[in-house]
Amino acid sequence: MSINFELLDLRAFLAVFDYGSFHKAAGLLNLSQPALSRRIQCLEVKLGTPLLERSTRHVSPTAAGCKLEPMARRLVEELETSLLTINGMDERQSGQVTIGAIPSAVVSLLPSIMGHFHERFPRMRLRVMDRTPQEALNSVIRGDVEFGINMVGASMEDIIFTPLVEDPYVLVCPRGKALAKKRNPKWSDLADHPLIRVGRVNSGNRVLLDNALAQAGVHLDWFYEVNNLDTALRLVEEGLGASVLPQMALQTSKHPSLAVRPIGPPNVSRTIGIVERRKGRLSPPAQYLKDMLLTAKPQKTLRPARKVKGPEN
After folding, report:
1. pTM of this prediction?
2. Would the pLDDT of 253 be above 70?
3. Cα within 13 Å of Cα(108), Cβ side
């Protein structure tokens, strides 16, 4: 079966999806609201299903609309970025690069290069989907993003992992406490202190830390357990305990009452790198962004990543 539709039909759908409003979407696309509505209705007729639920105050996607959104966005973005390479027009045309990344990588790795990316592609939008490690990986596998920035995990045949930096796990505790006075605390120093564990049972960060400590014969008696990093930091600030977290995930400037100390041996770290589909092909702007990530110097608190064998993530 052949389904014919125009690129503007998909643009219209995505604009309403993003803004939740026909009025705002029409203004963005420079269309009248009736013309925009006709575009959406035409697409719904051709697909044979409603894509948006309309009310007097808001517009929300149907289940079919949610399913269409990543596919439509990918089609539009791939067409736009491919056209940018024609006759060297890439610096003057607009478009969008979408990547999926864990939040700590967004804050630590992207700000220093985003300005350079904008200088090279001044009209190119950079869309960053900050997700959990598994969600960010899934967005790469589905093709919702051009590439991801994630932590190393299980091997997958269709995924290529290129290391960027080693992110050490560090001790976080209130300033003025006994633990904070130790310049190089050991795991055994945590025995008499209440500890705050972060992450769900199967979360990548928690599994990595637990496995590394188990292999070294280190057992920690966790007193509190939370899912959210900010919650853990707040509990530490309140003096309820200490925690062990990836250093990249910390914004110490926002928590002046906390002390951060290296801890070990063993010294545990996670490898942060670029994740992409083995059979995928990056657009020129996405390739430029990837190259900048690979050549940028890691922060002083991080180490260049070791070489890893195999397509891991």
Report:
1. 0.66
2. no
3. 27
